[in-house]
Structures are given as C-alpha cells and as structure tokens.
Amino acid sequence: MGRKDANGMQSAPVEQYRKQIGKHDYKKSKKKLQSIKDARDLKKSSSPVKDTILIVITGLCVVMGLYFLLYWYLEKDLPVV
After folding, report:
1. 20 to 30 A from 6, CA-CA: which of 25, 38, 52, 71?
2. Whole-angstrom Cα distance, residue 63 to residue 70?
3. Per residue in 14-59, pLDDT tens?
4. What angle do CA 69, 72, 74 make, to 5 degrees?
C-alpha cells in the first residue's frame, strides 16, 4: 500500500506553489468565516436582563388580562339593587 506519489517523483514547483496558496487561502477564509459566525451568534443571543424583563412583562400582561376578563364577567352577573 503506497501513497499517491509513491513512485518517488516530485511534483512540479508550480504545483507545490499552488498547493501552498490554496492552503493559505483556506486558512484565511476559515478564520473569516468563524469570525462572521461569532458576530452573528453574538447578535442573535440577547442579554439575560432583557429576557427576564420580557418574561416579567408578559406575566403581568397575562395576570392583568385575566383580572379584567373576570371583572367584566362577574360585573355582568351581579343583580342591580
């Protein structure tokens, strides 16, 4: 089981140069892609304080909605004296 170039022949210097350029470009693009992904994830994730405030406001809205619905429903059923 030999390697691809097991016959001992070296590739041309131009081919070696092209391989080096390809490896270098791949490394640069990989770093750039990773930085873009990190920036996107940072934008996508919100702060815990913002999430907490949003949950509290949503809970208050639900409680107030239930209160007004019950008030309106019970107000209709009371007999006028």
Report:
1. 25
2. 11
3. 888 888 888 877 777 888 888 888 888 877 776 778 889 999 999 9
4. 105
